[in-house]
Amino acid sequence: MSLCTIVGMGPGLGLSVARRFAEEKFDIAMIARNETHLQDHSKVLNEYGTKVSYAVADAGNIDKLTGALSKFSDETDVLVYNTAVIEKSSLTIDPQKLIEHLQVDVVGGLVSAQQIVPSMLGKGEGTILFTGGGFAHEPNPNYVSLSIGKAGLWNLGKMLAKKYRQYHIHVAVVSIYGKVEQGTRYDPDIIAHKFWNLHVQPESQWQKEVYIR
């Protein structure tokens, strides 16, 4: 059975991606800060008849994130990094706060990839997908930390894709240009299909980025 590990599991896009992969008989591993919410998500996903596991960790805490990922790293076939600090901030943001946000927005993505890539190299295949944002390309001075964070994550994804393409590891960024909300063009279920499509793309057609506008 294949395993999809989602860092930043939530009731929106995270759950939609998990459900989409569960529909394809993937086992699901979830990492997030709130154990109660993870237990609720497990109940939903168990209805698909797949194995569901979770670990509690804050993506901004390197040690805890590393420990959580170590439980799933050897079995993970698809890694989805789906976390960010989404709140308004201006150009007067406190530098320490910016650092804390970047720990979640970018550093956690790098740590996750570092934990998962060795096993993928051993298997000679794998998929790593990042939830990006339009602020990476169109930065907003009212969302300074998120704009910087998404730009950093976008570049991280591009570098990983360039580095590991030769080893048959598909790395891509799904850049979302609006608020994820059901019933809109940014419906999480619709976006989840984009994640699945990236995973199943023939290697000759691999995309490094998908834009959701």
Count the helices. How many? 6
Class in CATH? Answer: Alpha Beta
The proportion of strand residues reads 15-25%
The topology string of helices and strands comes to: EHEHEHEHEHEHE
What is the helix content?
40-55%
Shape: globular
Task: Write the CATH architecture name.
Answer: 3-Layer(aba) Sandwich
Total E-strand runs: 7
Task: Give the helix/strand class.
Answer: alpha/beta
Give the rounded overall mean pLDDT. 97
Uncertain stretches of 5 or more adjacent residues: none
CATH fold topology: Rossmann fold
Please summarize the sheet with the most strands: 7 strands, parallel
Question: What is the name of the CATH superfamily?
Answer: NAD(P)-binding Rossmann-like Domain
What gyration radius follows from the Cα positions, in whole Å? 16 Å
End-to-end span in angstroms?
34 Å
Strand and helix layout:
Blueprint (H helix, E strand, L loop, with lengths): L2 E5 L5 H11 L3 E6 L2 H12 L5 E5 L5 H9 L5 E6 L13 H29 L2 E8 L10 H21 L4 E8 L11 H13 L8 E4 L1
Parallel strand pairs: 1-2, 1-4, 2-3, 4-5, 5-6, 6-7
